[in-house]
Design a protein that fits this description.
Number of helices: 10
Order of helices and strands: HHEHEHEEHEHEHEHHHE
CATH superfamily: Vaccinia Virus protein VP39
Number of strands: 8
CATH topology: Rossmann fold
CATH architecture: 3-Layer(aba) Sandwich
Bound molecules: S-adenosylmethionine
Strand content: 15-25%
Length: about 270
């Protein structure tokens, strides 16, 4: 079990409750780079694992002409994503369905490109997520993930507490590489330092380029998010999430936590 109730709501919970469109560090710059490395071109069939509000799936289809299936465990996320695709006039190119990334509801060898933006470390068994991504990719298909990655050696206690507060499990670079290899991913390349700079971490939004973590959400978005956290978790939830956020930002600023993009082939 990865998450204890002690630190709920986690940073991930707060981001999801916030209602903002892009739910990962690096924002659209990283999504664009992921699509470029994945060599998305018209006619390819792409799976977006843990597709959230559908922002990335819609972007891949709109910008590169690919056909996308997004899958997410949350019925609310899937509903929002489908409605966003319809609003964008791309519902003929992008479909969403509910499913668990640890047991994907697709046949073997179904997709040319399989992407997971920022959600390999969230479920209990990240290795299963990677195995499943490889299973549903066609032979020679491309696999892309980006995830939180330690930049310094830390004790297991510090890592464990941090993961519980964050709501996802960062790993060391060598651990991610080894898990990808175990899943059967070949010819792996990665980009680490450039996505680990604090100014990239804070840049989680499409149109918001901020230099300080405090401004990643606007003041009104912060107030709305805190209001929602209060209704769901009470006052203790608000103070817990504030502490969790502080621990998270300090880890980034201290150079302990970074962010890495990986690409390989089946
Ligand atoms: C950090 S968000 C990333 C969303 C999107 N890929 C993005 O980058 O904006 C994590 C997403 O993972 C989804 N998720 C969590 N556990 C999952 C699971 N076991 N299977 C599929 N999706 C899951 C959540 O519902 C949420 O939408």
């Amino acid at each position: 079990m990865k998450r204890k109730a002690l630190y709920r709501p986690t940073v991930e919970d707060a981001i999801e409750i916030g209602g903002i469109e892009t739910l990962h560090p690096g924002g659209f710059a990283l999504t664009r780079r992921t699509a470029e490395l994945g060599q998305l071109t018209e006619g390819l069939r792409v799976l977006d694992v843990s597709s959230g509000r559908g922002t990335q799936s819609i972007y891949y289809a709109g910008e590169f002409g690919v056909d996308v299936v997004g899958v997410d465990i949350s019925a609310d996320m899937v509903k929002t994503a489908a409605s966003n695709a319809e609003k964008a006039g791309l519902d003929h190119k992008v479909q969403f369905r509910i499913g668990d990334s640890q047991s994907l509801p697709f046949e073997d060898n179904s997709f040319d490109v399989v992407i997971n933006e920022c959600a390999v470390g969230i479920p209990d068994d990240s290795q299963k997520v990677l195995n499943e991504m490889v299973r549903v990719a066609k032979p020679g298909g491309r696999i892309l993930i980006h995830e939180s990655t330690w930049r310094k050696k830390l004790s297991n206690d510090e890592k464990g507490e941090f993961s519980e507060r964050y709501g996802t499990t960062p790993l060391e670079l060598a651990e991610w590489l080894s898990m990808l290899e175990t899943a059967g991913v070949k010819s792996i390349v990665y980009e680490f330092e450039q996505w680990s700079k604090p100014e990239m971490f804070w840049k989680i939004r499409k149109d918001r380029d901020v230099k300080h973590w405090f401004f990643t959400m606007s003041i009104s978005e912060k107030l709305t998010t805190m209001g929602r956290i209060f209704s769901k978790y009470g006052f203790a939830g608000v103070t817990t999430v504030m502490k969790n956020e502080r621990v998270f930002y300090q880890a980034v600023l201290a150079g302990k936590l970074g962010y890495a993009l990986f690409k390989g082939e089946k």
